[in-house]
Amino acid sequence: MTGQKGRCNMGKETVIMNADDIKRTISRMSHQLIERNQGVGNVVLLGIKTRGMPLARRIAAKIEEIEGSALPVGELDITLYRDDLTQKQEQATVHGSQVPFAVEGKIVVLVDDVLYTGRTVRAAMDAVIDLGRPRKVQLAVLVDRGHRELPIRADFVGKNVPTASEEVVNVRLAEVDSNDQVVIVRS
């Protein structure tokens, strides 16, 4: 795939985060989330498929370790909300969202691996609104690589990585890819 956010194995890879970096970053982001929301009593996490989900689970586990409170974690499939669905060559596979709690009146934290154009986040916000009316929506991303096409910014950023548009940022997580690292691929 030559996507800006997706998987790509062509070209030269540069590791910008290893497993320890990712672990420390998740810890820092978890502390920031607790502080910004003055606790987590009204917070729910929604991981955007695919790699946002394991990140959301890791953040929830860290927050439970810190606060002693388990956060509800759901999985958001934004496939049908994408604005490029008709442009995709392959048939879209819908796995469905798994949100076993109400978002009405909650602080919903969307969790994703890479923030790029902002279109994935826009689609995720549409999906959340279809579930109910949250009190607030926040965004947590492991990597913000710039190049926004929509006026969207993350509330919690693991690492800001200035990139060229032809570069690809690959986040690899053990739950999906068998190892933890973030790489930039230059074609």
Describe this entry's structure for a reader.
By secondary structure, the chain is α/β, with parallel strands linked by helices. Helix content is 27%, strand content 27%. It is built from 4 helices and 8 strands; from the N terminus they run βαβαββαβββαβ. The protein has helices at 19-36, 52-67, 119-131, 174-177; strands at residues 12-17, 43-48, 73-76, 107-115, 136-144, 156-160, 168-172, 181-186. The strands form 2 sheets. Strands 3-2-4-5-6 form a 5-stranded parallel β-sheet, with helices on both faces. Strands 1-8-7 form a 3-stranded antiparallel β-sheet. The protein is globular, with a radius of gyration of 16 Å. The model has no long low-confidence stretch (mean pLDDT 91).
How would you summarize what this structure contains?
The chain is α/β, with parallel strands linked by helices.
Q: What's the order of the H and E elements?
A: EHEHEEHEEEHE
Helix content: 25-40%
Mean pLDDT: 91
How many DSSP E strands?
8
Which structural class do the helices and strands define?
alpha/beta
* Principal-axes shape call: globular
Reported CATH architecture: 3-Layer(aba) Sandwich
Strand order of the largest sheet: 3-2-4-5-6
Q: Into how many domains do the coordinates divide? A: 1
β-sheet strand percentage: 25-35%
CATH third-tier fold name = Rossmann fold
Q: Count the DSSP helices.
A: 4
Top CATH class: Alpha Beta
Radius of gyration: 16 Å
The low-confidence runs, each spanning 5 or more residues with pLDDT under 50, are none
Distance between the termini: 12 Å
**How many strands, which pairing sense, and closed or not: the largest β-sheet?**
5 strands, parallel
